From TrEMBL:
Residue ranges annotated for the GH3 C-terminal domain, each copy included: 422-544
Keywords: Coiled coil, Ligase
Coiled coil start-end: 11-38
Entries under PANTHER family matching the protein: GH3 DOMAIN-CONTAINING PROTEIN (PTHR31901), INDOLE-3-ACETIC ACID-AMIDO SYNTHETASE GH3.17-LIKE (PTHR31901:SF95)
Classification via InterPro entries: GH3, GH3_C, GH3_M
Species, as recorded: Gossypium hirsutum
UniProt KW Ligase keyword: yes
Family the UniProt entry places it in: Belongs to the IAA-amido conjugating enzyme family.
Protein name (database record): Indole-3-acetic acid-amido synthetase GH3.17
UniProt domain GH3 middle: residue ranges: 334-407
Amino acid sequence: MAGESEIKETYENGTKILEDLTNNAHELQEQMLEEILRRNAGTQYLSRFFPSGQADKQNFKTNVPIVTYEDIKPYIDRIANGETSSGTSGGQQKLIPITTESFEKGWYHHFLADIVIEKCFSVSDEGKSLSLYFSKPDMETPSGLVASPYMTFYSKTNIFKTRLAKFCLSPIETILCLDNKQSMFCQLLTGLLQRDKVVWLASNFASVLARTIKFLEDYWRELCCNIRTGYLSDWIIDPGCKNAMSLILTRPNPELADLIQQICEDQSWEGVIKKLWPKIKYIRSVCTGSMSQYIPLLEFYGGGIPLVSPSYVSSEACFGINLKPLSNPFDVSYTFLPNTAYFEFLRVNKDGGGKAQETRTIDKPVDLANVKLGQYYEVVVTTLAESDVLKVTGFYNKSTQFQFVERQNVVLSIDADKTTEEDLLKAITNAKLILEPFGIMLTAYSSYSDTSSTPGRYVLFWELKMKDSNDLPKLDVKIMEQCCCIVEESFDFTYKSLRKGGAISGLELRVVKRGSFDELMDFYISKGASISQYKPPYCLKSEEAIKILNSGMVGKFFGPKTMS
């Protein structure tokens, strides 16, 4: 570790860099666009928009259209197929070209986020993180370029091995293991064996931490057995994992095994993270957007440990970092970093519960310096080498602060009704409140539009557990039907009108057994998703995915036949 004076100097430089970035946000954005145009104006894609050869800001805004991934996919496919070369591709479901420079920018802003977080917590030089990262096999494109999920690519870089690995307990061999089960077991075993060194718990997304807790519930006895005997389970056959664990699991430790067993045998797992890792200061993971559904779960298991959402990053660029890590996880705002990409903003109308994508104005996009406080915008990204909805919440120096509002995709649709992700989240949040007095927690949910009969209906899948145990709650019919009523009452005027008119049948709520959503995650991972970057679907489109959750159903309940 660096000496105290070196750490202080690094912090001071980081703070100065951050102040310079935010104080000169407008100028840096102008420079960013100029650099993008200077480098790329002659490409096949952009040159057609500048017939006179004058690639300046005005011509860019006038001539270059706003496009989606599908519009540029043919060009990316040409790179992948070998017509041209543009660096290494990253991603599995979408191929996003990434260059050395764009990767280094992403790492650089990760470093700035680290500085902000570490200033809020007194972390000793000996402290390390239990960072749960996972890998997937690389894929080779027809041109020979390698495509992989971002975390897999990152884990193989020198930056990761020389910097992050110094703070991360998990041996690199366990992270690079392609068997997620073996990887998870070995990373948790490492964390338990070195529990007194763990000062923060981390993953890319909160869904990974929820998965980790479930895995711990299933395997704590076997983990204790490994610790008690000093022998690694026979089913751990990955050579890298076996070699790495042979240097950590070096002797029997029955005292530690007894302690962990005592903690895990407690009927309630409330605060179990703090009990297992007593020196932990915070949990670091993205908890905004679709990940916000896991906040209550992590607060319960964390026992008061702060949840820190460090930054907002998309496949295309790092948007911003959280300058107030101790803020309520439901109220996190990020500050734009103006030197990662060129950002433009399309104002959308969300007043009165309007659907953002249906009420987008015809206004021209504005730049970072001209957004208005309290307004909602769809952000448009132009990089050196996606579109989300943001709410402007304030300003830091001359940069903009924003909250990420989950993109307003329509997830449920029958007849003229279109229910968005935000509508669904709000309705479920209202309904689950009546479960809390009974000690029942909602741990995961999804939905789909069932049009197999007429009229169709919306179906919700809920996974529930008791706060003081992992037992499935006793499902009281009246309480569950009340949940259905609250969800329906929380939907908008259009839904309620169609329900009253008989065009939509009453909501159906299907409760599934514990672990059903883990099986759903396994299904999507088998189809190419990365566990490190997995985002649970609000709405199921796959018949196979619906079948998986249906197979775990332990009860179903309905809203009233008619809606008053």
